[in-house]
Amino acid sequence: MKWLKKVIENQAIGLLPIVLFMFLDNYFDYRLSFVVAVAFCVVSFLAYYILRKDRIYMYMLVPTIVTFILYSLFMCFRIYPILYVYSSLVIELLLVGVLAVAGIFKQRMFRLIRESEANKFEKNRMRNLLNEFYFIAPIVKRIYMIHLFSVLVYGLLPDSMQSITIERFLLRSLPVIIGICIILFEQLRLFLLLYQLENETWLPVLSDEGRVIGRIASSVSKSVPKKYYHPVLRVMIVCEGKLFLTRRDFRAYVSPEKWDTPLYCHIKFRQTIEDSLYSLAANLMDKYSIVPHLLVRYIHETEKVKHQVSLYMVNVTNSQLADLNISNGKLWTFGQIKSDIENGIFSEYFNEEYSYLSNTIMLAEQYRNAD
Fold this sequence. Notes:
A hairpin with a 2-residue loop joins strand 3 and strand 4. The strands form two sheets. Strands 3, 4, 5, 6, 7, 8 and 9 form a seven-stranded mixed beta sheet that branches. This protein has a two-stranded antiparallel sheet with strand order 1-2. It has helices at residues 2-8, 16-24, 30-50, 61-75, 80-104, 106-114, 120-155, 164-198, 218-223, 273-280, 282-287, 318-323, 334-340, 348-370, and strands at residues 202-206, 212-217, 229-239, 242-247, 259-260, 263-266, 293-301, 306-316, 329-332. Helices cover 57% and strands 16% of the residues.
């Protein structure tokens, strides 16, 4: 059922009645093909109307229905020879025109959803599916416009350059192939999108007061710098009065390849600080029963990010530090840090934390050494 729901949420499936008409028109009279396609369209509409209780909406069926209505009007005129030969092209041309008009009403459609009496969740659902429709509709319109233009160019060629085989393929087979390819393309895109979302890291979104008010994908948050406010956890490692620092990854979004604590992460959606602490320092907490202590919680804001940073500290011995299995790191004295702090070799977070660290950890170590 989950697989079926993913399939029927494909907005391009709304094109199936038209594709069916184009296919049947290759083998049967256009009137019979039209009746069968319309019957299939009505059944599809009723099926999706019933599925509305599951918040499934097929917006592409609306242009399809309008296209069939316009085609039925054409059948009222005495143009049987044209419809007999070019019925697929006529309905294709009508579909392109209907989709062009649908694009004009895009903002109005979104406004109707926004002003509807549906609850917030259902509005989001309707808006997302309408976005999918307005993603695939221009693709359908442009591809069929290119096909219609190709037919026009082919018709202008000399008779010596035309053949029955090419004409049949161009006028009858190609429209069906295009429709099927569009449906398969959209289905593949949706599967890839769902796979990406299932493997996406979801981050909580905080209000200015620090309360969780929603969630967003990490990749989306990075695409709009500083728009969303996220919680971040950092743990400073202190060993014999020195700070253990490593270089950040060269792919890091903030301060790549700068010196920083090796223990830092985003707090994920529905994850507590305790869970995040354990994921960072499980070896120390399980084997040595070391519990990190909160030093300070502050707001880190730059042109790229806005983070609520929870800074913790853990005090370890040399053997415990070795148990962390962190490579490419070294111990820094506060004197070394002080002499290099202006050289831009430390991360943005560390630069902001240095004054607090020097007034807490360094002083505590000085008093301990004096004793």
